[in-house]
Amino acid sequence: MDYAFDAPPVDRELLEFAVGLVGRAGQMSAQGFISGHWRSHLKEDGTEVTEIDVAVEEQIRDELSRHVPDDGIFGEEGGTASGLSGRRWIIDPINGTKYFTHRVPLFSNDLAYEDEYGPAVGVINMPMSQLMIVAGRGLGCWVLTGRDPDLRSGRRAWVTERTGLGGARTMMHNPAGWPEELLSALHRRVFLVPSTGVIVALVTGRADAGVIAGPPLGYEDVAPMPVIVTEAGGLVTDLGGASVLEGDMSVLATNGRLHEEFLQLVKGLPRNRDVQALTHGDY
């Protein structure tokens, strides 16, 4: 499912609703982070989930059920609730739970909305930084700040205009899971920097590109990306050039001008390494 350039703009009131919804979720997760009063456990896939993840998703689901009762919902923790409208919301209540549990304030609250035309709304909220990136199809991409983000006071988000691949500032997410071939190929051509949020850095001009490889992401991780990156003037695919929503769940996000060169640079390279075998399961 690709971004539909010829689709009508999403309703602005719906975008404003999404801002408020994620803003409230961010306040809950920030309070939980600061208090430290929560329990966690490992899910069947080996990833960690906390009581705050579950509570934040439940809050979002409750508000969606009241405001748009006919829409479907997919959440990382609660799974799928089918709807009647053909539209759906995708929730990642705390993207970066490992950051959250390790007391690193780089987690985010992510939300996406898909209608009959495809990706329509994307929100990435970093509550500890009081920074929200929100985009609506045909309405642009916006940077909102403060404890109570407001779309009316936001500023437009834009990617950089860099045209040369050499030395391009490139966020790398989860390099521990990258194979040597991918890391070496990029290291030789671009300026690799640790990720503090690939998509946020790209659309605010702090990076020219971002690469996510290693263990595949979940759909909830990538769902907000197409509308956010596109409305900021960039381009996002998987590392093979396929739709980021239908590819192998790797990510290449660029300012658009550099995208083809990046794809050629990583063409045919492996995208994952066996981290579990390397660390005997201690990763």
TrEMBL record:
Cofactor: Mg(2+)
Ranges in coiled-coil conformation: none
Alphabetic keyword roster: Hydrolase, Magnesium, Metal-binding
SUPFAM superfamilies the UniProt entry points to: Carbohydrate phosphatase (SSF56655)
One Gene Ontology MF term: inositol monophosphate 1-phosphatase activity
Transmembrane intervals: none
GO biological process, one term: signal transduction
Enzyme Commission number(s) from the entry: 3.1.3.15
Binding site for Mg(2+): 76, 92, 94, 221
InterPro entries: Inositol_monophosphatase-like
Name of the molecule in the record: Histidinol-phosphatase (Alternative form)
